[in-house]
Design a protein that fits this description.
This protein is α/β, with parallel strands linked by helices. It is built from 11 helices and 7 strands. Helix 4 runs antiparallel to helix 9, helix 5 packs antiparallel against helix 9 and helix 6 packs across helix 7.
């Protein structure tokens, strides 16, 4: 998935994209780092909670197990998906992108249903791969939802994730949280691919883990299985967006946030 930071120079954008396109860090290396033993454990955030995604699947990849745990306690969990992920297959044909957008919305609805009794997500329909050009609209939509539901905590993709849409979503969420005086927790998605244990680019002092119960993890796995468009080959000889090695990072017995 070619992607880059929206605020960097052309050379830095290419370097960031190369980090994601390159072979990633094996999950075995992350397991050997024993993060749950080295990082502080966090309690579940107190609701209402708003979870922001740049694309359909980000919220489940980064925070789906904790969402399931929150719903099981009766907490109010709201979601907003900023794009429909219509560019994930690299097709420039408008009708193909529209069809993929519709499919991904359906996949997200099915995935969220696996996590528990969740409200339908708010879709803003901003353009995939160009979210950094629409941060004002994204920040307004997030702030409006935070205010509407009187959220205590907002979860959003980390603004250092080296994916331009994820970083734009993170920046927009940070702006919205400042406007509404809401606490912000960030979750990494692609960080597990390009980073290494003790990587200096990661603010480890602000990282905490949320352990997942077996029931919450099973719900997350069931939800992730609903994203067939991302898990299956995109065409003859074209790897899926989320191959098994990548999925291994997101089916651990814990989730990670940056505060």
């Amino acid at each position: 998935m070619r992607s880059s930071r929206g605020s960097l120079s052309a050379e830095e954008r290419d370097a960031a994209a190369a980090e994601i396109d390159a072979p990633g860090t094996a999950e075995e290396r992350w397991l050997a780092a024993r993060l749950p033993e080295r990082l502080p454990h966090l309690d579940l955030p107190v609701g209402p909670v708003v979870v922001v995604a740049a694309h359909p699947d980000d919220e489940v990849l980064g925070f789906g197990g904790t969402m399931a745990a929150l719903v099981s306690t009766g907490a109010a969990v709201h979601t907003v998906c900023l794009t429909d992920g219509e560019a994930s297959h690299g097709d420039n044909d408008a009708s193909a992108r529209d069809a993929l957008a519709a499919l991904r919305r359906c996949e997200l609805a099915a995935a969220l249903s696996e996590l528990g009794s969740l409200r339908a997500p708010l879709h803003t329909g901003l353009p995939d791969t160009a979210l950094d050009q629409h941060e004002d609209a994204a920040a307004t939509a997030i702030a409006d939802l935070l205010s509407e539901v009187e959220a205590n905590v907002c979860l959003a993709p980390w603004d250092g994730d080296l994916h331009s849409d994820h970083e734009a979503a993170g920046r927009a969420a940070r702006r919205a949280c400042r406007t509404t005086n809401t606490a912000l927790w960030s979750f990494p998605v692609w960080m597990w691919h390009w980073a290494r244990p003790q990587d200096p680019r990661v603010p480890w002092r602000r990282v905490g883990v949320l352990p997942l119960s077996p029931a919450a993890l099973e719900r997350k796995k069931a939800a992730l299985a609903r994203f067939a468009s991302q898990l299956e080959a995109r065409g003859p000889g074209i790897a899926p967006v989320l191959p098994p090695g990548e999925m291994a990072h997101h089916t651990r017995t814990f989730e990670t946030v940056i505060r």
